[in-house]
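Extended Data, panel c. Modelled sequence:
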Amino acid sequence: MAGGMGPGSPEMKAKGKAAIKWIMNGLWAMFDVEQDQFIVDKKVLTWKAHIVVGWDFWAKEYRAIAADSNGSTALFKCEIEGDKFIMTADATIRGATSKASFHSGPYRPERC
């Protein structure tokens, strides 16, 4: 999506991987993410992030927090739509508020 790396940034494509480790007696999942980002077909950067996601019993919703290689952090609200797990946040990137969204799937609760 355009604006994902700050106001005025072009739309990018990304390809990456994540390593997942369950922590705190299986209540939370810890993701180490690395992805190459491309404008048209030219690689422009490698982005890395550390994300912790799980069910917040008090808020009664999935939540996640992320810190990344751009020096930013974000608190995500998460939801399940069909077989997709979607994380959305208002993040500050280069001093401006931007929407950050991750979609993963298929979500299979029997694997959790």
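The first strand starts at residue 13 and ends at 23. This feature is highlighted in the accompanying rendering.
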